[in-house]
Amino acid sequence: MKTKKLFKKLLFGITLLCSFSLHAQVDTKGRDFWVSFGQNATQPTASSVALQIRIVANEAATGTIRFTNTGEIVPFSIAAGSVLTHVLTPAQRDAAYNGTPGVSNRTVRIQSDIPVTVFAFNQFSALACATNVLPVPVLGNSHFHLGWPTTNQRGGYEWDQYMAIAVEDGTNIYENGVRIASNLSAGQMYFRRQTQVGVDMSGFHITSNNPIAYFTAHSYFINDGGGDNIFQQLTPVNTWGRNFFVPVTTRELEYVRVVASEDNTTITQTGGNIAGSFILNTGEWAEFRITLANGGAYIQADRPIQVGSYMVGSTFFGAVPGPGGDEAFVWVPPIEQTVNSALMAPFIAGGLNRHFAMIVTPTATRDNTTVRIGTGEEEPLSGGTWHENAASGMSFYHMLLANNANVSYFFANPAGLIAYGYGFGSSISYYYVAGSGMRTLDVAFFANDVHNQDLIAHPFPTSGMNFRAYIQGDLSPNPNHIRWFIDGVEDVSLRDQLTWSRNFPNGTYLIAMEAVANDNNNTVRRVEGTLIIAIPSIIVNPHIRKLPR
Q1: In whole angstroms, what is the distance from residue 347 CA to residue 343 CA?
Q2: Residue 433 in 3-state DSSP?
Q3: For 446, what's the count of Cα atoms within 13 Å in the CB-facing half-sphere?
Q4: 446 pairs with which residues across the strands?
Q5: 18 & 72 share domain
Q6: What global pTM score does this model have?
Q7: Is residue 318, in this structure, part of any structural domain at all?
Q8: Is 134 strand, coil or helix?
Q9: Is the pLDDT of residue 138 over 90?
Q10: Following DSSP, what letter does each residue of 204-266 receive, concatenated?
Q11: 540: which of 68, 265, 336, 351 lies 20 to 30 Å off by Cα?
């Protein structure tokens, strides 16, 4: 009887740890999201645009879509492995679409009972763009814009734009240190438009006293004879990394922009059409071209940077026309933000008829990548082609997706992956991140190479633990700039230690690290994670993401 009870307790413990691992990954999935839509081309009102919100669920989910401007609430329910495509009604489009700069309530909130992946789509005629939507817990208060110059090539409506949504009351928003919106309530937003021809807001620093959802939105950007809109949510600086691999779509040629967050940032890239290293200061950016023939580009920096990739149009010299299609834009996650799985579905809309997933993963373990289509079984990738980038040790795979809005794709790799989605049609394209990590990278620590935000997903079957601090930029020169806490009590012997090791008995521990920022206020940043030392020597979750040293 005692043996049975012990077995039941052990089984319950394993089940509990498994349940932790299902939801603890810090990534683009979540339960609470905010989104808004910027002006597309010549359309100051929503009467002629088509707007979609897409929700993809790995497990059965229920939730609501709420329109702040009208108070309308739309309930939803999604079966496991399914896709919900909500096409906004005319009234809902009016409540979510921005054609006039300034402060408004034209936002949408999506809430779910379990983690889901949310995307949004903005289309007018043959101009379309898609974005993933980031969950509230990973939002931040420091962003750098990535856009394109304002021009007058098509009649003077090609404006660089952005949208900043407050998710907390009392939010103030600043552009390059100047306050541009004050005391916004949760759900209010500021819509900014740059109408001066030749001005490119890329590198503008947008800050706020509370976290915001920040979207770049160009009404009609042109880098060849065509043109298309931009609609992408950008990530806060505290999630930026220092190592990037930029893949290339089947268009076979892209532009890449790199923005620095700190002065004297040294950047080295391999694979682009510029050679060697270069230095950028805060808000400065550089641009170069990459090709499929070179296997994309590997970018390294000594300080945090932001990277974006711009798909060229089908008529651009040197590009592959394929099924047609114009420009598109996507933000590029750093290698430090790979995840063990991603869930996505193609965007089915007027004129789009060819859809792809692009999966980036370490070359050494790329053959371990699997896909589950709908509620089917996981199986190895097939039907596509791997492309290798030797400099980065990464590879990427193009997989043609069914032209079916109701089919979801679940990609997984224990060694980590980043997933993108893109598609083409006649004079129309889209490009977005389907899944990546959203860990805090400005101040973090690792336990046996697992990020502190991922610890609860990884019960360690061994008592030997190695800890390592990871801090972007410069540490304060003052003493006591790093402090470590175990279950709320500082271990003074670990003061200023970047690395340390210890054996822990079986149990659960709250590990925290405090770091003093190198600023005038000696700001203290605290990060923590739940460390589980498990009894069973069983790998509970085989999909463990380990970040590079």
Answers
A1: 13
A2: strand
A3: 17
A4: 451, 468
A5: no
A6: 0.90
A7: yes
A8: coil
A9: yes
A10: -EEEEEEEEEEEE--SSB-SSSS-B---EEPPPGGG-EEEEEE---TT-EEEEEEEESSTTEE
A11: 336
